[in-house]
Amino acid sequence: MSHLDTLRAAVGELHVLTDADAAPYLTDWRERYSGKVLAVVRPGSTDEVAAVVRVCATAGVPIVPQGGNTGLCGGATPDDSGRAVVLSLQRLNRIRGMDLDNDTMEVEAGCVLQTVQEAARDAGRLFPLSLAAEGSCTIGGNLATNAGGTQVLRYGTMRALTLGLEVVTAQGDIWHGLRGLRKDNTGYDLRDLYIGSEGTLGIITAATLKLYPAPIARCTALLALSSVEEAIAVLTLARRGFGASLTGFELMAGDCLKEVVRCFPQQRLPFDSASAALPWYALLELSDSESEAHARERFETVLGEAIESGSVKDAVIAGSMAQSQALWHLRESIPLAEKESGKSIKHDVSIPVSRMATFVRDTNHALQQAFPGIRHVIFGHLGDGNLHYNVARGRDWSEADLLARQDDVFALVHDSVHAAGGSISAEHGVGQLKRDALVRYKDPVELALMRSIKHALDPRGIMNPGKVLAAAPA
Amino acid sequence: MSHLDTLRAAVGELHVLTDADAAPYLTDWRERYSGKVLAVVRPGSTDEVAAVVRVCATAGVPIVPQGGNTGLCGGATPDDSGRAVVLSLQRLNRIRGMDLDNDTMEVEAGCVLQTVQEAARDAGRLFPLSLAAEGSCTIGGNLATNAGGTQVLRYGTMRALTLGLEVVTAQGDIWHGLRGLRKDNTGYDLRDLYIGSEGTLGIITAATLKLYPAPIARCTALLALSSVEEAIAVLTLARRGFGASLTGFELMAGDCLKEVVRCFPQQRLPFDSASAALPWYALLELSDSESEAHARERFETVLGEAIESGSVKDAVIAGSMAQSQALWHLRESIPLAEKESGKSIKHDVSIPVSRMATFVRDTNHALQQAFPGIRHVIFGHLGDGNLHYNVARGRDWSEADLLARQDDVFALVHDSVHAAGGSISAEHGVGQLKRDALVRYKDPVELALMRSIKHALDPRGIMNPGKVLAAAPA
Question: Which residue in A20, A212, B3, B210 has the fewest CB atoms around it within 10 Å?
């Protein structure tokens, strides 16, 4: 039998896609990477995933696991050798169960994030992970990249929201690690090793996730600011005044919001001309477990302090759920507006908060010196020290002009991040996009440890080769 | 040169201890394990730790890392071959720095936990890890065992409080991973792999820890209850009512508190005779970032609901910091009272909260059937699903009677934990004590993955051999 026939025997003929049927799986969301495959395989159960892996391990066929195909670093796109299979987890999309007294739920890797959020909400709970792609990204992809998003400040990244995993190893064995325990010190932390490993050590097929009580009230405000320093001063006030009720602190450059309003005219910036011209904005969110009145009083007290201290120049407090959604919608539309305006160069970086303002000022300056006219598209999760420090082509540049400068821009920004003690991938992962940069910035001892682990768990090198780490020589 | 001479050259003669000088390092705190060594080596810097590891790696000398020697599973005690060295981290005890705008501090592995707590407090911050041994346990030991304690419900275990590590590998290289970043997705999560690995993969020499705003007010109450079910009902109310302000929920069997009061007559149970006879108590703590008045009002509202619902039979609310400390002191004295009463058999288990009440009832019953007269010493962190489900000898038993039954008691309790989807080590780790039990209860695929990682990172098997996993055959 050919490899294709063996795969068809494992998952059924309908679920081995080739040619045109395979095409949607072979290009990433940003249309930066495109590849070829032997086939796209869509197993329908954990046992079928294990069967596919065993077939591939025996035949030496590389496997590229894929969830919702919304990744930003090409981690789920095959190379152009045509030797690999894409293993899509989309058919593993059952919510297996909920344990409300334990505040946990068990879900399969192919569940769409929004479906999981909604199931939690229907049960009177909160599953806090929230990010722009939530309508199509999957839990498996969220786990593979340790996804972040807008609620990390309070609830942590996907890692912090996960208690147990079910994993198919590179040998095609199944590790049954779906524990609903908040404490478990029996040996090495394999869970966190698989989370964030981008499919290079095995395939996550299901997870036990933490649930939280749904907040009783939420308050949201959009703040107008004149500097990053001011944003940090407000963040400090909010941390102290709100404690764990501070659930969102998003920083946005004024240029980003102007671009949103230009691209999507049904949206508007709720400030008059003076405040609408300020260079920075922050979206502030408090979640309260007490009452609407208490939330509001507390929110206004701290915001009052911030205005009095001079850090906040202007503020709009959402008066209704609809207004709050409109403010969040502005923030969430930034990546879409960015895409509308053509290709951009994205840097998903983190910096200690104490060095953030200097980083932004110095890096902006250095970029303008080196590439006059380049445009800054800066937004992100200031509360976590995470910025999407993106750049777009200058007004009179072609897309090709930007792409020609791409490697130099990457190097300048990443050098600057590295000098500030930061990370060149805060929440998007490494994939193909940052694989070579990793070698430049990572401690060589750490890289050697990573390679040892890769070799130990995937000695044949069939799990998503060439992602995160360079493929071992054949 | 002999191995000893080489070690003396690496750290100075004064810091290589043998004979009587070595003795205090060779027996664990519970006096369950005792071993022999070539020497105890006390390096004074990370470079010296690396030098010691290189000497040992070359000579094939096993290394047993040790912090405050307060572990409960024999993880830091050498075997009796006399071939190993104990590598004490106690001289690496500097707080290297604080970054208050980033809410982080950098500390060496030998810092005593309480020193770190106090340094944070002096800077107006909170380092939340808190446990009975805090006056003598070290940060390195806390990391090696992923320590838990009384604040996990709100702040997580040591893992959740750590951002970066400095590690000396089994080859004697130094991994410089002291990052102060809340988000960093550049490759495999080595940090969490080293945390909880009990010195079997390398030696943690320093860490970057998270700081939190110090709460403005705290409220504490001792609740009298008639069942575990009632305790869980109150926990559910408190979670919903307090949200993230719920910082403590400790369950204690009445017998534990009676034993405390008997052993330490200066302490007292603050209830009259009826409530003092109830079988269960819970210590409830709320931490507020708003005000004393707000904390108190909120605390009393939720407590009022709990009393009205019938779940709480009686309650004492601390009226002052001193009274609050007295209540916590009752809780913290349980292990000391337990030790006063002679050896006991300890089980540090976690269970999904939803199965906790049934677990306690069924396991108590099965133990009494099998070992009539055996005494239950049950307390722990109910909010985390973690119980110290200990047992002590019956009134008319000798210590030998208890120890003779030890293996059967372990097996009965751990079988029951396993059947309830729980873990046989929630926060103490594995060490020597639970190494063989691990093989009995752990998924064989998971064990095989652990062995692969051990072999990949410590191919010579010199790092704390025989702890967590059986030593590989020579």
Answer: A20
